[in-house]
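**Entry details**
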Amino acid sequence: MTCTTRLFSLIGLFCLSTIPASAHLWRGCADDSPAASAVKTRGDVRAFVECAAQFLEEVGPEEARHAFNEDGPWKHGQIYVFVDGLAKSGLESMTFVYPPDPAREGQVWGAFIDDFGTDLFYEAYRMMQLVDAGWLYYSILNPATGVASLKASYAIEIDWDGHPAVIGAGIYEPDLPSTCRSEEVSANGLGDNPSPESLAAVVRCAAMMLESGGYSALDQLEHGSRWSDGVNYVFVMDLMGNQLATGNPVRVNGNALHEWRRAGRPDRFGGRDMVSMADAFGEAYVYYDAYHPRTGAEQGKVGFLKRVVANGVPLIVGSGYFSPRDQSSARMSCADRRVTAGAVRSREQIQAFVQCAAEYATDHGTAEARRAFNEEEVWKHRDIYVFVDEVQPSGADALTYVFPPDPSREGSLWGTSIDGFGTDYYFELHRLLSVVDSGWIYYAFTNPATGIWQPKSSYVMEIDWNGARAAIGAGFYSTDLPGTCEPGVVNAAHLEEDPHETALQAFVRCAALAVEASGLFGGRSLETDPRWNHHSIYPFVIDEADGTVLFSSNPVSFRLSGRLEELFDGRDMVEATATFGETFWYYMSTNPETGEVGAKTSFVKRVVAHGMPLLVGAGFYPPHHHDE
């Protein structure tokens, strides 16, 4: 077997052929308890709803209804908890909790035919016949804007004072394939609200425009007022670092940008290859000093880079904003979001985990923090742990203060550690914390759960450690990045052996990358490659335009033509996936391993391959959730 992944060939790593699939599953509300103000992603929504369901079970319907309606941990802006009766139609479903308009509570909602062709309340009812909890996709009034917006909600089946019901919450995302409205996402808006979230939305929306329009979209990205507003603008590079477009009035198109490649000016990123980093990780925040044209001085800048494939060519889309050195006022506290090591199942949760660790060290002192980080499961679970390092320009001078995988290293110098992007990890850590007081660092490191080097995204914060300048952090090993997706890690056999949503998402995202890179040729390989097909696990590819199944190793799949309405009682999940980018599907299907019809949970992702929008998906057959 040979390693072909770009990042691993850069670092000279071993093939990952024997790594078991790892699951970072929710272990209880006490492990991951976000307040409404801390809900930023779909992963946050799920944890938030699970906590709300546990709170309801503990205090009962009356007290829960009162708490859910009050501004505070359960209600903030557009984030709130709802509870609805489980019925076949909104004409029959009683509204038990609805904070945007409590006057609705105690009444039936009324008919609610959503954007995808069916009564939303029927969809919730249909879904709960198959699973105990899942995702709903629809459009509803956003109380923060007063405008109907697309919403992805997670819902759990519950008992509400003797009535079957669902408890849920959702999120309105501005950077979906069918949103990205100019009034919500623009360079001007980024200037008015410079934050990591608004920056990522601008770049993701620009990337989708480039993905759909190909090179013809470059002119609009460069000259359109939406994408360029003074010091905030979008730029596009190829993987050689050559600039293809920029909204910066000073344009050097066709030339390699001096700051992004290792061969260029070393003072911007210390020789670090930022283009290869963005290519390997898919999305990455970057931090650097840049000339501010309005002040005439160098100032810290936060950038965001995203890999996209346009006209079959991988490109990097980016943007950035000038940031003040101290961002502590904008940072959430552990009171807003408490996360323990066992609850971390995504990169997004790492930031809250590190914030809690930093507060623990400050409140309890370094000696107690070191003990706790090394011994307590709250801070250490499989490949999730807290580390603390001295901030120095090189590992040759940086002391290791906390390192749970090998405590014998603590108190000693780490030594020079050159990563796959051309710099000493400690130099990059020092450079990053010289620009901002917290942020993301990308590198490769030995995963203690597997013993093999893997790409790692870590969030770090500067803290005082016994009078020394130090960084506290934690990281996440993703298996579904453009630079990972190793066959030995993500494959059908592993998914069938351990079927859960996190593994399913990684499987589909890696399959989607293969289709994105090779187009319909990639889809054909999904039908025959044993990596993607094992007993009941197989991927499928659907033409977004007409819902036709183009590729699948299960012959039954090809009978489901058109918009697949027969699977969802008239609901158009093809359109829902095209709208939301990624969706879970819940339906009845024939298991090719057993020949029996059973409930199936699938995850489906939209990609554009050589200009053709496609849906790539796969699923597993969980045990039926109702008691026999």
Remarks:
- The mean pLDDT is 88.
